[in-house]
Design a protein that fits this description.
Layout (H helix, E strand, L loop, with lengths): L3 E6 L3 H12 L5 E2 L8 E6 L4 H17 L4 E6 L1 H4 L1 H6 L5 E3 L7 H6 L4 E3 L20 E7 L10 H5 L3 E2 L2 H13 L4 E6 L13 H9 L6 E4 L9 H4 L10 E3 L7 H6 L6 H12 L4 E8 L6 H13 L4 E6 L17 H25 L2 E11 L2 E5 L5 E5 L8 E6 L1 E2 L4 E4 L1
Parallel strand pairs: 1-2, 1-3, 3-4, 4-5, 5-6, 7-9, 9-10, 11-12, 12-13, 16-19
Antiparallel strand pairs: 7-8, 14-15, 14-17, 15-16, 18-19
Helix pairs in contact: 12-13
């Protein structure tokens, strides 16, 4: 019997892609746009922090009020950490692991509760042909991570790094480009490790993607500094490369980087960032504020080093304990008020650096429009800066070339 299925996705771009894989494999079932009017809710969960677990649990509890008769299937990384506990509490009907996504139709149809976590060797074969409600297409090129950062649980719930087949990736992009998508975001648990243990690499994959008719711009998910080699650097001037890279540093104090069991160090990071910035790129990073051991002196050192970097974007996270990691056992924690203050300092600094960058890069912007609201259209330029366009024309989901924009505090503006 066909069932109406609502998908709720938490967390990263990889999860967004995984949800599309499940949608593509619904079989006789149909997608519902409402969690209150469906038979089944599939929760694609995140477990990167204890707080992420709490958000998922809170959402599942709310479903009992909104739609008490709906069956809840828990998927995603949270299935491995809290899944069986939620099943015992009868808050979910079933649990599936990453390797079981493509069999979602069978699990929706089953009459008995289940736990099917599968293995960490699986690579999806599904060709995603559309991204519902999206102007850009997310393309997962690899799964898993081989790093052992002290604060991170992800390798335990995603497995070791393994690459998707190049032919599958290229076929998927070809189909999506034919269906009207022009911008592609390469994503994965650890994108820069693509090709590890094979005869290909991220740079070689990018070159092949660029040859596909209809591909206009390619963005790359977060990379590690150590993964940016000479072969990749040769691509920086290619016209199809988005002029923004997100390179995960996590901190700028070498003492903290060592404590986090990171492989990068500031001197090498600074040299790399200055090289890429000299080629006209905007640069973003991840930064964990108030990880255990971050003293006042180390924080001041880190902040001065951030100022010295040509950064334009940041994903700043206040450290949140994740049970099952080394960092969770460290005792020298940072007080919550101090953590909030440091987070404000860091984000204010990068906000100012971003504003200065936009003032210097306000001409000849290529914007892919993604949203519209009462005559205002919003999208991102090649530098991954937000642009708002006022026009009477219908430019939804289209590319707009802007010769100049007005740079304001939060975003860029234009009128056409």
């Amino acid at each position: 019997m066909s069932k109406r299925v609502f998908f709720k996705t938490f967390g990263c771009r990889t999860n967004q892609f995984d949800t599309q894989v499940m949608m593509q494999n619904l079989g006789p079932h149909t997608i519902s746009q409402s969690e209150s009017d469906c038979d089944v809710v599939v929760v694609n969960s995140c477990t990167v922090t204890n707080g992420a677990d709490s958000s998922v649990r809170g959402y599942i509890s709310s479903l009992k009020r909104k739609n008490p008769n709906a069956r809840v299937i828990l998927a995603g990384c949270g299935a491995y950490q809290k899944g069986e506990e939620l099943l015992k509490q009868k808050k979910v009907f079933g649990i599936i692991g990453h390797s079981k996504k493509e069999s979602i139709a069978d699990f929706i149809s089953t009459k008995e509760s289940f736990v099917e976590l599968g293995d960490f060797d699986h690579i999806d074969e599904t060709i995603v042909q559309d991204f519902i409600g999206k102007s850009r297409a997310f393309i997962k090129i690899q799964e898993g991570c081989d790093f052992e950062c002290s604060y991170c649980i992800i390798p335990k719930v995603r497995g070791a790094s393994r690459s998707h087949k190049e032919a599958t990736i290229l076929e998927q992009i070809d189909i999506l480009a034919h269906n009207g998508f022009g911008e592609f975001i390469l994503t994965g648990t650890n994108v820069g490790s693509y090709g590890k243990g094979t005869d290909t690499s991220l740079a070689r994959l990018l070159k092949k993607i660029s040859l596909i008719r209809g591909v206009r711009r390619v963005r790359i998910g977060s990379m590690e500094p150590s993964q940016i080699d000479s072969e990749f650097l040769e691509l920086l001037d290619e016209p199809w490369m988005a002029k923004h890279l997100h390179i995960a540093l996590q901190h700028t104090s070498d003492t903290m980087l060592e404590r986090m069991k990171r492989n990068n160090r500031f001197a090498g990071d600074q040299k790399l960032f200055e090289l890429i910035a000299s080629r006209g790129y905007a640069l973003g990073t991840d930064f964990i504020v108030a990880h255990p051991g971050e003293s006042d002196a180390l924080w001041q050192e880190a902040l001065q080093r951030v100022e010295a970097l040509p950064l334009t974007h940041i994903h700043a996270f206040t450290y949140s304990k994740r049970d099952g990691t080394e960092s969770a056992l460290m005792r020298d924690s940072v007080h919550g008020d101090t953590a909030k203050s440091r987070h404000r300092e860091l984000t204010a600094l990068i906000k100012d650096k971003n504003y200065r960058f936009r003032k210097e890069h306000s001409k000849n912007l290529e914007v892919l429009i993604e949203q519209s609201d009462r005559g205002f259209y919003r999208g991102y330029d090649q530098y991954y800066n937000n642009v708002e366009v006022l026009t009477k024309r219908d430019i939804a989901n289209s590319w707009v070339s802007l010769e100049d924009v007005e740079v304001k505090d939060e975003k860029n503006y234009s009128k056409i």
